[in-house]
Write a structure and sequence with these properties.
Elements lengths: L8 E6 L2 E5 L6 H8 L5 E3 H9 L8 H17 L4 E4 L5 H13 L4 E6 L3 H8 L9 H13 L10 E5 L2 H6 L1 E6 L1
Parallel strand pairs: 1-7, 2-4, 2-5, 3-4, 5-6
Helix pairs in contact: 2-3, 5-6
The protein binds adenosine-5'-triphosphate and magnesium ion (MG).
Magnesium ion (MG) binds next to helix 1.
Length: 177
């Protein structure tokens, strides 16, 4: 049976590499802004903008991830808590980051935004910054359902948030590691 206990508190080790995982529109950036300092968050969209002046330029994805990986590695080298704000819905994307954390001997944890597809589709209609198409949302949602992160991937902890209310209400605390 799958346990469906509501998450009310996320206690992250500090330092840690924290992967946000969730389809486009699931609330990763909103959560990151609410709980972490701007320099603690490394965002794939921001890295796309840094190399291409456009957060949505998909042709800049490979370059953006080189920047994201480099910043993440340099931060972990200094043992700075780092949050990766990218969809991370497929295992092979996460594997690279889990390996990076391990190489720096820093624990890696995941915060998963597993919201219902209907909510994601509805949100996209009123989003102020960008309007991802339904096909992209469905693909991300399906990818995540196929491969929900587990501790077997190398995460010290995995927290799964399943509703907008849960994501808004959750508290984040830090514990010196
Ligand atoms: N907990 C929440 N409750 C209600 N609305 C939310 C919540 N979190 C995010 N939203 C809204 O959902 C939309 C998408 O949020 P956000 O930009 O954080 O998603 P994202 O996961 O970062 O998406 P992307 O992968 O496309 O960057 C925004 O309009 C935001 O205001
Ligand atoms: Mg975002």
């Amino acid at each position: 049976m799958i346990e469906r206990v509501q998450v009310t508190r996320i206690e992250v080790p500090d330092p840690a590499l924290i992967l946000l995982v969730g389809p486009t529109g699931a609330g990763k950036t909103t959560f990151a802004r609410a709980h972490f300092g701007s320099t603690e968050v490394v965002s794939s969209d921001r890295c796309r903008a840094l190399v291409a002046d456009d957060e949505n330029d998909q042709s800049a994805t490979a370059a953006a991830f080189r920047v994201l990986d480099l910043i993440t590695a340099l931060r972990l080298e200094r043992r700075r808590l780092t949050v990766v704000d990218a969809t991370n819905v497929q295992t092979f994307w996460r594997r690279r980051l889990v390996a990076l954390a391990r190489a720096h001997d820093v624990p890696c944890v995941a915060v998963v935004f597993d919201l219902p597809l209907e909510i994601l589709l509805e949100r996209a209609l009123t989003r102020p910054d960008r309007r991802p198409g339904p096909a992209v949302i469905r693909r991300h949602h399906a990818d995540l359902q196929r491969a929900l992160p587990t501790v077997n991937e190398g995460f010290l902890r995995v927290w799964v948030l399943r509703t907008a209310e849960e994501a808004s209400a959750v508290e984040v605390t830090r514990r010196s590691a």
